[in-house]
Structures are given as C-alpha cells and as structure tokens.
Amino acid sequence: MKNLLRIMIFLSIILITFFYFDSSINENDILEAPQKADPLPAQEIIENPLAIERPGEGISVYIGESSEEWVDDYGQPARIEPSAFGYEWWIYNQSYSNYKMVGVKDQKVVQVYTAGTATDAAPYSIGQTIEDLYRFTIIEDEVTVKYGTNIYTFSLSAEDRETRLLVSFEDIYAQLYIDEEDGMLEAVRFMDAETLIRHQPYDMMYVGNLLVPITPSSALQASIDKANAKQVVDLTNVYRLHHQQKPLIVNAAVTMLAEKHSRNVARQNFSSEEIEVESLQERLENSRIVYEQAAENTASQYYDAAEAVHGWINSEDHRDTLYSSQFNQIGVGVFGKYYTQSFLKQEPTKAEKQ
C-alpha cells in the first residue's frame, strides 16, 4: 500500500512538472526597443565638415532619383504598402536573395533597404564582417544632419556601435544592421536626410525646429499594421535563409491570433481597463488549433518591421526561436508599435505531402 502511494505521488509530480514545463510551447518575454531620450534642443551644433564621397554604384545611387528610373532598372514591385512616415514601401520579395524594400515619396526614391545577399549594396555587402566594416568605414559616435535651416545630431550608444551603425555620406545616410552573435552585416538601409530625421532611430539633439509628426488616420494605420506584418514574415524568411533554415508558411488562423494578441498587449499598456492577455497555449487551445510545437516572439516600440526583426535576432531567446528548425508555419500580427510573431509546427496535410 505504501509503495502504491509512493508511486501515485511520483506520477503526480511528473504530471505537474509536465504541465508547467511543457517543452512543446515557448513564449518569450516581450522585447522592448532601446529607449531613446526625447529630442533635446541645443544652443549650437557644430556641423561635421567630414564628407565621405557618395557611392557611385549600387542601390544607394537611386536615393533622390525618380521612381521611374528605379522601375526602369528593377521593374515593378510585388507589393506597394503604406508607411507611418509619409512614403510608400515598394516591396521586392520575388527572390529572397534579392530582397529589397524601397521607400517612395512624391515619385522620388527616399530610401532603399536590403537584406538580400545578391543585392548590390555597395560599398557594403550582406555577410560582411563587422571587423571589415570598421576597417574600411569611418564610424562616428555622433552624426550631424542638416535639413533646410535645421541641424540635427544623432548619438550612437555602445549597443548601437555593435548592432546598428550609422554612416554619413555627402547627402545620404546608411544604417548598417549587424548580427551581434555572428558579427556579420545582415541588412543595409540607405536614406535621405528627411527620412532619417523622421525615423529618429537614435538619441537626437537639434537646432531649429523639429519636423511636424505625421499622424495616420485610423484606417491608414490599420493598413500600415497589415503591411508591417507582411514585412516581418518576409524578413523572417530572408534571415532564416541566411542561417540555412527553411522559410515558413503563413498560417492564416495563427495570424489572426497574433493580430489580436498585439492589440491586447497595446491596450493593456495604455488602457485604464483591465485587458486579459491570454498565453499562447490558451489562445491556441481556445481556437482549437492543433500543433506539435509552438513558440512566440513579441516586441514593442520599434518604428517599423525591419527594426523589430533586427531586435529579435540580437536577443538570444528570440533569436533561437526565429532561427529554430522545429517550426514550419508562422503568423504575424502588428498593432501600432506592437509586434507578435507566432511559430507553429504542424504535420503537412495529405495534399501537401503529395
């Protein structure tokens, strides 16, 4: 009888342990974007006289040129999507090795982002080591930008110098996105002065006036959220291929759950009401979604999809999830500056097996 009791107690402990530490599901903590101080007015900013010659080849040469010239060379985009900063995103995802996002405003190219290993991002190349970047690039802690009669200075933190560099050329700017663990260049964003100032990706001081913020309507913001979600999926698959992992298939049902989760997390942070935020396991079970493995990355306060994904790949737990070979499906939902990326492993259907 005593032995039977001991066995029952032992089995109960095993069941409780399995319940609380179920390895089939993993929900990472929310990743907050690096905090920036509010823009600070300054009495005087000394302009940096150093002017690096603008690249003469590669995608950066299109900054400031007409979108027609871009189309003549690269063709029509797969998608055109809105942004929160006054430009449209032209998405080129027909080939992940040539993945590009082009910011177009008033028929002019104002920025080009690429994570494609086959894209000409001269003077840089995706996969380049950070040691090589520092060897051939002038990296400054502060970068001064003149726009009209206003002057802005961006200050890079110690973390920025390891993961997100800013380089000034004659009249354009480059953000270099580094994978800190691998020490490799994962993506490049070239842009004009106005775009950099509107993004304000680093601490900033200014002399003159700040640009008037753009506030999208609620309908436009909903479209921006959908666009950001699609871009997160694209970039997740681009980065997975960088690390020899298979791309993920979008699961529509999980996408809906991710959208609702981002909305609830945002409302929980800003509403006086008590908003219940269910765990990933609860959401999947309540929606009767069958899975073998599941995991989730969340993030907040990133100004666009590229920044959010870059944040995840430089956070150990989120990175492990994003690059995991366990999953074959993904659902992404965005609400403002809140991002949810849900991963799933499901057995393929009979049709998919065939």
From TrEMBL:
Transmembrane segments: none
InterPro entries for the chain: CAP_assoc, CAP_dom, CAP_sf
Keyword check for Coiled coil: yes
Keywords for this protein: Coiled coil
Coiled coil: 263-297
Top-level taxon of origin: Bacteria
PANTHER family xref list: SCP DOMAIN-CONTAINING PROTEIN, SCP-LIKE EXTRACELLULAR PROTEIN
Protein name from the UniProt record: CAP domain-containing protein
